[in-house]
Amino acid sequence: MSDLNAVGEQDNWICWLCDKPVDPVASVNSDLGPSTDSFASTRVKKGVVAIERLAHRQCNTQKGKISPIVLWSKDVFVVDPSPIFETVERLRKKGGREIIARCPGELEANEASSWLLDRLERLAPELDLSTEIKSGGGQYLLTLKIG
Fold it and tell me: What pLDDT does 96 receive?
């Protein structure tokens, strides 16, 4: 297990689950205190390597009970958004691409794309994720792809 301060510095003291600041001087026993979470793994030739991320103690505890929920920002206009965490996990396992949301216009699709890539840079920094926007049927489809 890594040093909590090193993991905090690596993640800029932002919880990887809720994307909100973590107070570096808060008690580790506080719900909003810092904790490390070995959530992700990458495949290497001889097994799996755990990646430690910073999380609020409460977020980390809840993650143990249910799948994490990574919410879409209220500042982006998306229709029928796919669950972000589950989509990333499917892409991590299978690769390829997946439609993640629909947007009513090109501007909204570009804003959603920028926000999503920024959020995923903190959620899954080890993955090479990109987006693709395609128009059709009076809407814009936002596709997330790996590689």
Answer: 93
Q: Domain extents for the chain?
A: 4-65, 84-146
In the chain, count H helices and then E strands.
4, 5
Give me the amino acid identity at 40. Answer: A
Residue 101's beta-bridge partner residues? 142
Tell me the whole-structure pTM to 2 decimals. 0.73
Closest of 2, 36, 30 to residue 17, by C-alpha? 36
Q: Which residue reads 């909003």 in tokens? A: 32
CA distances from 12 to 4, 21, 55, 142 (A): 12, 8, 11, 28
pLDDT in tens, 1-40: 568 889 889 889 999 888 899 999 998 888 888 988 875 5
Q: Cα separation of 24 and 42, whole Å?
A: 27
CB 105 within 8 A of CB 140: yes
Cα Dmax for the chain: 52
Which pLDDT belongs to residue 32?
87
Residue pair 100/142 in contact by the 8 Å Cβ criterion: yes
